[in-house]
Write a structure and sequence with these properties.
Strand order of the largest sheet: 2-1-3-4
Number of strands: 8
Largest sheet: 4 strands, parallel
CATH class of one domain: Alpha Beta
Order of helices and strands: HHEHEHEHEHHHHEHEHHEHEH
Mean pLDDT: 89
CATH architecture of one domain: 3-Layer(aba) Sandwich
Low-confidence stretches: none
Helix content: 40-55%
Shape: globular
Strand content: 5-15%
Number of helices: 14
Length: 367
């Protein structure tokens, strides 16, 4: 069942238009796309719409509209709008995670003129004052989405959406356990996690529910355990290169990794619970957490028995570049080896990356 599930996940990622078409055939509601960051999909579901994260394949750029020093995700997202690749979506939510993304909304509106285009403003710091602000921001976003769909996303429907998404997250967490046990490859794991952002929750649950432990092969050679830090496992092919080089990801702080299966507290005020999930998420370049990022990564290495940390950063990402030197130096002072890989959306210089990964593995094996 694992190969079948992975094939279905790849098909969804390659053709989100087909996912949207299936949804519309069975539901009287719109499809709302969002950029692949910490967007509360529950708000979209509760308002009778399907949330679908945007993972456009390929590496085409948007040179006519963005400077060459702008990060490749923003350039690829804008190129997708310019080329009509997101015509399957009825609306779009853009999280305001950096200065580039703040400017992206206006450019997107100019190029595509979607019927619904909304920003989503995340707090940068997890302090007490961020909680009421963030709850009000989630309330504003809910009002905007339900105004577009024409359906009320009341607390009851929101709690039901949270329970459904939590069920997917719990199954995904079990999938991660199989990843650590070597029962599923890095590439297959991240492919399935990413698909959970694209497929309807019920469809994803059925996909994960059909994967039995007995189906998983445990005959793979031992791999060196590492932690990966960044925004996304992008390009997704990097996960396959990690497999090829004998490196096993036993922990990460990625949106399409461990951040995907952090559950929301059920019961009580659902907006407050959604806010707490984001505020208590692992620290990243976008948002500080309860502890610093270097402290979190060092603890993750110790907890999971990892032998090193691989930083997977997008070229020209100001957020990652600003924090990286301090995080790297802190880890290396603790005796934790690190490797820095700079990538662009949809491209991976496989030969060069493999050489560096193999050298890193050999170094870790010699430690």
């Amino acid at each position: 069942m694992i190969p079948a599930a992975v094939d279905a996940a790849r098909a969804a990622l390659a053709d989100p238009a087909a996912v949207a078409a299936r949804w519309r055939a069975d539901h009287d509601g719109p499809v709302i796309a969002h950029l692949p960051y910490d967007v509360p999909a529950e708000l979209i579901l509760a308002a009778g719409a399907l949330p679908v994260a945007v993972f456009p394949p390929g590496a085409e750029q948007a040179q006519a509209h963005l400077q060459g020093w702008i990060c490749s995700p923003a350039r690829r997202f804008l190129a997708a709008a310019r080329q009509g690749e997101l015509a399957w979506a009825d609306g779009l939510v853009i999280p305001q995670i950096c200065d580039t993304m703040r400017g992206l909304k206006g450019l997107w509106q100019f190029l595509q003129e979607p019927a619904f285009l909304e920003s989503y403003n995340l707090p940068r710091i997890s302090r007490a004052s961020a909680r009421p602000y963030f709850a009000s921001e989630l309330s504003r976003l809910r009002d905007r989405i339900q105004g577009f769909t024409g359906r009320t996303a009341d607390d009851g429907r929101l709690r039901a959406a949270i329970a459904l998404c939590n069920a997917v997250r719990e199954r995904t967490a079990l999938l991660f356990q199989r990843r650590v046990l070597g029962q599923i490859s890095n590439l297959d794991y991240y492919t399935l996690v990413r698909a959970s952002y694209v497929l309807p929750p019920e469809e994803m649950l059925a996909l994960l529910g059909g994967m039995d432990v007995e189906d998983a092969a445990v005959s793979k050679p031992p791999a060196v355990p590492v932690v990966v830090s960044g925004q996304l496992m992008e390009p997704l092919a990097v996960a396959g290169l990690l497999d090829q080089c004998g490196l096993s990801v036993v922990g990460d702080d990625l949106v399409d990794g461990e951040r995907a299966w952090r559950t929301v507290a059920e019961g009580g005020d659902p907006l407050a619970a959604l806010a707490e999930r984001t505020l208590n998420a692992p620290p990243c370049a976008v948002k500080n957490g309860p502890v610093t990022r270097e402290t979190y990564l060092a603890a993750l290495v110790a907890e999971r028995g990892a032998q090193g940390v691989i930083f997977l950063h997008f070229r020209n990402c100001e957020m990652e570049n600003l924090g990286y030197p301090g995080t790297r130096d802190h880890l290396e002072r603790l005796g934790i080896p690190t490797l820095y890989l700079e990538t662009q959306w949809g491209t991976a210089a496989a030969g060069a990356v493999v050489t560096r990964l193999e050298a890193f593995r050999e170094m870790l094996e010699g430690c």
